[in-house]
Specification:
Number of strands: 0
Radius of gyration: 26 Å
Largest sheet: none
Length: 58
């Protein structure tokens, strides 16, 4: 009995899943965004950086 359970488990793990690739292809693409990396020396008077941050925020 134990040997047949081990064989069954080995067969289950050896078989590829049937629906996994199809399900992965049907997923919608992930949303894309922007990343603004700002160092520790950003000052309030740096208008170019703040303008870009506001532009990317929408």
């Amino acid at each position: 009995m134990r040997m047949s359970i081990l064989k069954l488990c080995a067969l289950m793990f050896a078989m590829p899943p049937g629906d996994a690739p199809a399900a992965a292809q049907d997923a919608p693409p992930a949303p894309r965004g922007s990343l603004v990396i700002i160092g520790g020396n950003l000052r309030p008077d740096n208008a170019d950086v703040w303008r870009r941050v506001v532009q990317l925020a929408g």
